[in-house]
Write a structure and sequence with these properties.
The protein is mostly helical. It is about 75% helix and about 0% strand. It is elongated. The mean pLDDT is about 75.
């Protein structure tokens, strides 16, 4: 007997069998980047209240967040060129995870002095 093909068998698969694990490992990184990026505005508003800073200084803090994209792009490109895309992506995620710790001295001093 001949087997009838269904409409689902004729459609291309979303993921090939060998790409499922990389897809599962890489996709949450967008979520883990997007959540802090979205919470940044709320965090800056709370920093304004906590440290009693004006809108100009809060704007400097927010621009420093985006300056990180600009300043880390070149080193990331060099890592990717020397090693691989995966190594560059992983090292970038590790750096981005460590950058908020630079705020810790300010939180312990409870002052935000910008001269």
């Amino acid at each position: 007997m001949s087997r009838k093909s269904t409409a689902f068998e004729d459609e291309p698969r979303l993921l090939s069998p060998g790409n499922t694990l990389p897809f599962v490992l890489v996709t949450p990184r967008s979520l883990f980047w997007g959540i802090p990026s979205n919470m940044k505005d709320t965090l800056i508003k709370q920093l304004m209240n906590l440290f009693e800073i004006n809108r100009f200084r809060a704007g400097l803090i927010q621009s420093a967040f985006y300056m990180g994209y600009f300043l880390l792009a070149r080193p990331a490109a060099l890592v990717m060129r020397k090693h691989s895309y995966k190594t560059g992506r992983s090292s970038g995620c590790c750096k981005a995870r460590g950058l908020p710790s630079w705020l810790m001295p300010t939180l312990t001093l409870r002052s935000l002095q910008m001269s």
